[in-house]
Model the fold of this input.
Amino acid sequence: MSEFTADAIGDLTGRRAIITGANSGLGLQTAVGLARKGAHVVLACRSEQRGRDAEQRVRSLSGSEHVHMRVLDLANLASVRDFAAGTEGPLDLLVNNAGVMATPRSTTADGFELQFGTNHLGHFALTGLLLRNLHAATSARVVTLSSLAHKRGRLDFGDLQSERGYRRWGAYGQSKIANLYFMVELDRRARAAGWDLVSVAAHPGLANTNLTAGMQTPAMLDVFSGFVRLMSQSDAAGALPTLYAATAPDVRGGDYYGPSGPGETRGAPRLVAPVARVLDRDIAVRLWNRSVELTGVDYASLQPAG
Done:
């Protein structure tokens, strides 16, 4: 694993992948890595224009014509439903990559706090609505992107939407640990149902992407962006844990991959451990049930594990 590069990915000819937030950064680099190896890649992007630009860039960098852009706004459940309804046939790989970070408080089209609504609820709904496509594939995978920030994240079930008080980084950490609770519970349910579906997660460490753009506060943006530029690796290097989780033959359901360097901030991908509370089944089930209530996506074909 320490020697893994994008060139080490095996032949993916004919396999179909969807990557959310693929117009730049980690998502774009993930798309390039998969398309180079023959995968048919859908770039699920909120902005049609940026998505079209990314489509051309991925085609140019990968040498593949099997790259297509579709509009998906994870902060709008109607958009998520439209996207899923327009997805036909087996889906081999879903990469839940898109996200926002440390934004000023705002809400999604459905009234959810933006970070929790986009990073967790949008992907929860999307994955559930694409279950039929994933189930139709052989050895399908769902890769969900988390973050080092999950280590300080805690779910406040009394105020999941941060209505009583909003802290940018607290809300971000909550959304990122929610991603991991979701990943683990999806794996449990798929195993219990006997599905050939692998649910895993990855994080990029510190990667130089445009994720900081949503901060909007100039002073915070300048300080944090400067720190990221000083300490981070490239977006191509940051995408390697995702590419490993998405393609490596030794990946198992429930695995979590991140950089191997000091503090998991940079370096080649390896298996890493989330904070122990991610394995608390009671919290995972409680979050799952609440997510069903909020999104209206019930995962009826995947019942709780016994």
About this structure: The chain has a mean pLDDT of 93. DSSP finds ten helices and eight strands in the chain. The longest strand covers residues 40-45.
